[in-house]
TrEMBL record:
Keywords: FAD, Flavoprotein, Membrane, Oxidoreductase, Transmembrane, Transmembrane helix
Name of the featured protein: KMO
Cofactor(s) needed by this chain: FAD
UniProt keyword annotation of Iron present: no
Family matches, as PANTHER family: KYNURENINE 3-MONOOXYGENASE (PTHR46028)
GO molecular function list: kynurenine 3-monooxygenase activity
Gene Ontology CC terms, in alphabetical order: mitochondrial outer membrane
Presence of keyword Amino-acid biosynthesis: no
GO BP, sorted A to Z: kynurenine metabolic process
Domain of life: Eukaryota
Chain ranges passing through the membrane: 21-41, 61-82
Length: 98
């Protein structure tokens, strides 16, 4: 009974739902490259072991892509924040306006 509750909490988590939506999106734009595990197991002739291996590869690609995208966003935001929060170069040399 405990495993059922634990599994149910995992399936209802926001991260799991987010990953499933990414899988669906990638399957929609690249149907021969990204196939959700359920689809591979239920609606194809791919062996279960091969489907699981392919699913692990797809998850690795998705996670690395999300990591790179997140890193790009963090670096961009840091750059913009530093650029607009720091004083302009040589502002301290200008005369105050009278």
């Amino acid at each position: 009974m405990y495993n059922y509750i634990e599994m149910r909490a995992h399936v209802n988590s926001r991260w799991f739902i987010f990953q499933k939506n990414i899988e669906r999106f990638l399957h929609a734009i690249m149907p021969s490259t990204f196939i959700p595990l359920y689809t591979m197991v239920t609606f194809s002739r791919i062996r279960y072991h091969e489907a699981v291996l392919r699913w692990h590869w797809q998850k690795k690609v998705i996670n690395r892509g999300l990591f790179l995208f997140g890193t790009l966003i963090a670096v961009s935001c840091t750059y913009l924040l530093m650029r607009y929060r720091s004083p302009r170069p040589l502002d301290y040399l200008r005369r105050p306006s009278e």
